[in-house]
Amino acid sequence: MFSQAQLAAFFIDPTSSSSASAYSVTLNVVVIISCILVILESIPNQSSTTQGIYSAIETAVVVVFSFDFAASMIFRHNRFRWLISFWGLLDFCSILPFYIAIVTEQSSLSNLRIIRAVRMIRIFRAAKLFNRFPGFEVTTRVMMKSGDVFVMLLVFVGIGLVFFSTIMFMIEAGDWNEEKGYYEICVKDECFRSEFQSIPESMWWCLVTLATVGYGDAVPLTNNGKFVASITMIAGVLVNRSRHLYSPKAFV
Questions:
Q1: pTM exceeds 0.85, yes or no
Q2: CA trace torsion 130, 119, 66, 76 (10° rounding)
Q3: Tell me: the pLDDT tens digits for 176-207?
Q4: Residue 19: is its pLDDT beyond 90?
Q5: Is 134 helix (H, G, I), strand (E, B) or coil?
Q6: Neighbours of 227 (CB within 10 A)
Q7: Are 220 and 172 in contact (CB under 8 A)?
Q8: Any bridge partners for residue 182, and if so which?
Q9: Residue 249 has pLDDT above 60, yes or no
Q10: Do the Cβ atoms of 235 and 210 come closer than 8 Å?
Q11: Could you say which of 167, 206, 249, 251 is the most buried, measured as most Cβ atoms within 10 Å of its Cβ?
């Protein structure tokens, strides 16, 4: 017979024994299967047989997670403290959608979109993988030590976002067409619906440009707009490069 301490180490500490390590690997595989299942379920027009297979796999996955969650609650000394922690809430939320979906499907208030949204929360199970790798703790500490760098970048991006989005809206919005109900810009005797209908809409273009991605779904048409876009691109490159100008002395 195993003692309570041995069982607690088995379920909580993957490094305590080879069997505990195998159990942890098994849970990781189940997490990956669960995430793949969420992706496959989004494919439309699947047969009822395929959907039945998905449902059976999902039930098995939830049984495994429910068992692991129950074991963690039983063998941990500080159960409540763990339950309200990030990892405890994550484990709880990984099984909660399944039971909520069962209740909503059986109630008169059943709504397909609500059920679908609740089920998609399952994708957060992927974060459970982080808790199973020792390197995640080191990475977390590095990011915490680099917090001031991230704040600096967010401030620069935020200022540029508001500044360039406002200027681009003023230049590229054009004139309001009362009949059509949107801003219209005319270039070379041709009028087009402006891609910059408001400052918030312009922020999408600005963020993509500052990130040096450039999807091309919104582009300036006027020379002044192109000039502002050029400055925005250069600013994006400078902001991206500025993070190399500062690095904390100690990361870990």
A1: no
A2: 50
A3: 888 888 888 888 888 888 889 899 889 999 99
A4: no
A5: coil
A6: 12
A7: yes
A8: 177
A9: no
A10: yes
A11: 206
Q: How many Å apart are CA 119 and CA 58, to the nearest integer?
A: 10
Average pLDDT over residues 126-136: 63
Buried b (16+ CB within 10 A) or exposed e, 185-195: beeeeeeeebb
R_g over Cα of the chain? 26
What does the pLDDT look like over 34-58, one tens digit per residue?
888 877 877 878 888 888 898 899 8
Distance separating alpha carbons of residues 64 and 58, to the nearest angstrom: 10
Q: Are 70 and 82 in contact (CB under 8 A)?
A: no
Q: How far apart are CA 249 and CA 112, in angstroms?
A: 52
E strands along the chain, which residues?
A: 175-177, 182-187, 190-193
Strand ranges inside 66-222, DSSP E: 175-177, 182-187, 190-193
The answer on pLDDT for 60 being more than 70 is yes
Instruction: Read off the tokens for 90.
Output: 């994550």
- Round to whole Å and give the CA distance between 221 and 192: 10
Structure tokens at 221: 């048409």
* CB count in 10 Å sphere of residue 136: 13
Residue 122: which residues within 8 A CB-CB, separation 6 or more?
34, 35, 38, 94, 97, 98
- 147, 248 contact by CB (below 8 A): no
State pLDDT tens for residues 84-119: 887 788 788 778 878 877 776 655 444 555 655 656
Supply 198's token pair.
């408001």
Contacts of residue 33, defined as CB under 8 A and 6 or more positions apart, other chains included, come to 57, 61
